[in-house]
């Protein structure tokens, strides 16, 4: 049986209180498509207000720390994020891997910390343009996945997002064949890493997904949803992606 589609908006460093109305509008679109799991990961400063304003709509964090508490200035623990109202966190986004030098081991520890706190985790993996050009994309992503893979993984709380770094925010999207090949490779790797139950782990595609290409991308085998940046900031842009997911 096919997995329910899962469409997550990653707002990155965008959004002030004035944009809470956009989240409410997006939540309303999501409520009108009950066969789709949809959510938004706003900046942490909006998590509490967004989750209170739209109960039942899945608000997530964009990152969390792996430690439960302590001397980590500026960081947020999973318990803090959960208390604010998040039910899951993205971990290992390529922007954090690059800007904050997050390692696969960090990402694994963050995913495990999220699970320990009762949160879901979306682990991001993806190759750079140089790696794809060198024909190494599948190897790179599978190694990243193995090394970032949390102990005790299960589909109840774990999601994988394949996001080619060169497709993020660029308007460039891999061919449907390349997406199919990568998602199949990730599916095979998941079976190797966790055995039974791996088919139910959702694998999202991310990188320049929008209302115009979502239906085609979501139709690719093993694409169980999308992680969407730029096109998730308003209901006008994000709504059509949720609608496209509702058609499956
Ligand atoms: P994009 O970002 O949709 O703006 O390409 C996706 C992401 O980084 O999650």
Keywords, separated by commas or semicolons:
248 residues, alpha/beta, TIM Barrel, eight-stranded parallel β-barrel, 8 strands, 41% helix, binds 2-phosphoglycolic acid
Explained architecture:
It is built from ten helices and eight strands. The chain has 248 residues and is α/β, with parallel strands linked by helices. The protein has one domain: Aldolase class I (TIM Barrel). It has an eight-stranded parallel barrel, surrounded by seven helices. It is globular and about 45 Å long. It starts with 5 loop residues before the first strand and ends with a helix. The structure holds 2-phosphoglycolic acid. 2-phosphoglycolic acid binds next to strand 8.
Ligand inventory reads: 2-phosphoglycolic acid
CATH level-4 homologous superfamily:
Aldolase class I
The level 1 CATH classification is Alpha Beta
Rg, rounded, reads: 17 Å
CATH architecture: Alpha-Beta Barrel
Mean pLDDT: 97
Q: Strand-residue fraction?
A: 15-25%
Multimeric status of the protein: single chain
* SS elements, strand count: 8
Q: In order across it, which strands form the biggest sheet?
A: 1-2-3-4-5-6-7-8
- Structural category is alpha/beta
> Helical content, roughly?
40-55%
For the biggest sheet, the summary is: 8 strands, parallel, barrel
Terminal Cα span = 12 Å
> What is the fold-level CATH name, i.e. the topology?
TIM Barrel
H and E order: EHEHEHEHHEHHEHEHEH
